[in-house]
Design brief:
Oligomer: single chain
Helix content: 25-40%
Structural class: alpha/beta
Number of strands: 14
Strand content: 15-25%
């Protein structure tokens, strides 16, 4: 079946999940700027209207519903696949790291891909997506492992810590003081701007390959909590002090914020702090973004 776009037959259309967010929206805009048709996957008609007005085909679907995803993936040359963040996963039957939500999503996605047979899939994973040690990022390991066995071309795009996570710190920075869970304060970790993730994902969707490949992506350099404080200081014109949140108090803090199962998130932060959450390296393909943390924080301060 030849897919249609705005009433005309076309041979290429790209299905974008997560299009209402920074990364998915950036992927869609990059493809559209190149003159390529995009199918927006949204959860409601209202969320789809802005994209329909931009010229996208719109499909209503949810990431854990196979039937709606089949419609979204059918006729697609490529699918950009991302899952919504799960910061407070439901505990499993026997432990905190079984992640039943991830398995439900994986089952729906695998079924939809098997039936719809899109030309290729680019899945947005994360740095540490390969790590065996129990932590919150195992959600992506579940997805990676489940997607590898599919018989269509799959690219797993492992992106570093989002620079835009610092948006949560802007108000504190304006007051001159940021509490940091990243420790030691001078320990650099891989980071990436969402605009670079979008750009690389759009590039990958237009490439050809066979089987499953992994692409790891980080920014032009690594940054620490102290770097975040120094950049905020320059952009705001006053000193911004970083102070570590003691590990012993994390669980109480997270539970006070409404989390019911904070341990996976705590172990994820431990992984960055202790260095066992990092890229796999070796024969895995590696790319670098172009956007500096200075550029991202400058924009966050201005908005």
């Amino acid at each position: 079946m030849i897919p249609s776009y705005k009433g005309k037959e076309v041979f290429v259309i790209y299905t974008i999940t997560g299009i209402t967010g920074k990364v998915g929206g950036g992927v869609a805009r990059t493809l559209m700027d190149a003159g390529l048709p995009v199918r927006a996957v949204v959860r409601s008609k209202e969320k789809g209207e802005p994209w329909e007005n931009k010229g996208c085909e719109v499909t209503i679907a949810t990431i854990d519903d196979a039937q709606s995803l089949i419609e979204a993936f059918t006729g697609a040359e490529g699918v950009f696949l991302m899952v919504p963040p799960i910061y407070d996963p439901e505990p499993g039957v026997s432990n905190d790291y079984e992640f039943p939500e991830a398995y439900k999503i994986l089952e729906a996605v695998r079924t939809a891909i098997d039936v719809a047979r899109p030309g290729k899939v680019v899945y947005l994973s994360t740095v540490g997506g390969h790590v065996q040690e129990p932590n919150l990022l195992n959600i992506h390991k579940i997805m990676e492992d489940g997607l590898r066995s599919l018989s269509i071309p799959i690219t797993i795009l492992r992106a570093a810590w989002f620079m835009e996570n610092a948006a949560w710190d802007v108000d504190a920075a304006k007051n001159g003081f940021i509490h940091s869970f990243l420790n030691p304060l001078d320990h650099p970790i891989p980071m990436i701007a969402t605009i670079d993730i979008s750009r690389v994902a759009a590039e990958l969707l237009r490439e050809s390959w066979t089987g499953t490949r992994i692409v790891e992506l980080e920014g032009p350099q690594r940054y620490s909590s102290n770097d975040i404080g120094a950049i905020f200081s320059r952009e705001l014109g006053h000193p911004v002090r970083m102070e570590t949140v003691p590990r012993a108090g994390w669980e109480e803090i997270f539970r006070s914020q409404g989390m019911k199962n904070p341990m996976p998130r705590m172990r994820m932060i431990d992984g960055f702090n202790e260095g066992w959450i990092d890229f796999e390296g070796g024969a895995v393909e590696f790319r670098k973004g172009q956007t500096s943390l200075d550029t991202v924080l400058r924009e966050l301060v201005r908005t």
